[in-house]
Amino acid sequence: MRGGLLQAIAGAVVAAVLGAWGAAAQSPATQAEAVAQFTPAQLDQLLAPIALYPDGLLDAVLMAATYPLEVIEADRWLEDPQNAALQGDQLIAALERQSWDPSVKSLVPYPRVLHMMDDRLEWTERVGEAFLADPAAVMESIQRLRRRARSAGALVSAPQAVVSVAEPEITIEPPNSETVYVPVCDPSVVYGAWPYPDYPPDYFPDVFDGATIGGFGCGWFGAPIIGPLWGWRHWNWRRHRIEIDRDRFAALDGGRPPPDDGVWRHDPSHRRGVPYRDEDLRARFAAPSASPERRRDLRGYPSDVAPQIYTVPRTGAAPGAATAQPNTVAPPAVRPAPPAFESFGRGAGVRTESERGYSSRMSAPSPGGFAPHFAPSGGGVRLRK
Predict the structure, then answer these.
(1) What is the tally of structural domains in the chain?
(2) Lower Cβ count inside 10 Å, N or C end of the chain?
């Protein structure tokens, strides 16, 4: 019974996501917006929310963003209180039973980051495809943003992070081997005067409601470092790539070894049929598994049965309250995927509000120096220990 329920949930999620992405992939207007053509201004706008993440978390975010469907599944998996309560070896054992890419598994101990990627699905997809299209440009954008933050006095070593500068690279590491602190920063403060008025930085403060943004622009939340999920990859900033430990990667990926050269490469099988928006990426990575017939198989429907897509509100309905169609199982509440190419969250209106708020913040003088603000442990940040 439980297996059938999980299959129904997965089918509903896949159907919703593939429907949105499939419509976008078929739109001539969408195809004209090739992600490979992102300008430095657009990349800086896109990467502003995560550029100051510790290196060992940032690499997992970029890799996992290329597998948006698995990100959604992992976030939904954590909505089960039994899964969310797993710790240490129990969590590792549970993740071994999942088919997600190691980068997605590595984000599970950081549920707020994973939820941000799910909740801002449009942003996640664009980050992932930008990284696939031109990893060098993405990595240069991250370093450019870090240099800007350092010039603004907001990127220095602190109890929550060790900042090292070896020109032209700036690295950010956890202060110890047990805890990583994730920054939640107001980009209008930490990056100083933003140089691209037409491309204000993306900013998602509402996702991290417990990490209060202090007077100097940053809040923090802490989370544990779980050995097998941390440190199996590292940045090679000079060569613009992420290098991986073959044995540790294989242990997280069901025994499948990575490429012989030990450099991370995108695995289209973990894309799970989600189409690539960019034409060049489709040519490089698209496989027969992304065909309409394969998409129907992924959704869990036999070829002669029309799919049933459940629409369950995020709030106001108890799990399992959806009305099932004949011969179907009503899944627990599943958050609908945002329309493709809609701005994050509640749509274009959110982008307008964000830009208006950004403009007002930019008109105020930026404070000097850096003083991190901590959210109190009981202030709404749920930390996994």
Answers:
(1) 1
(2) N
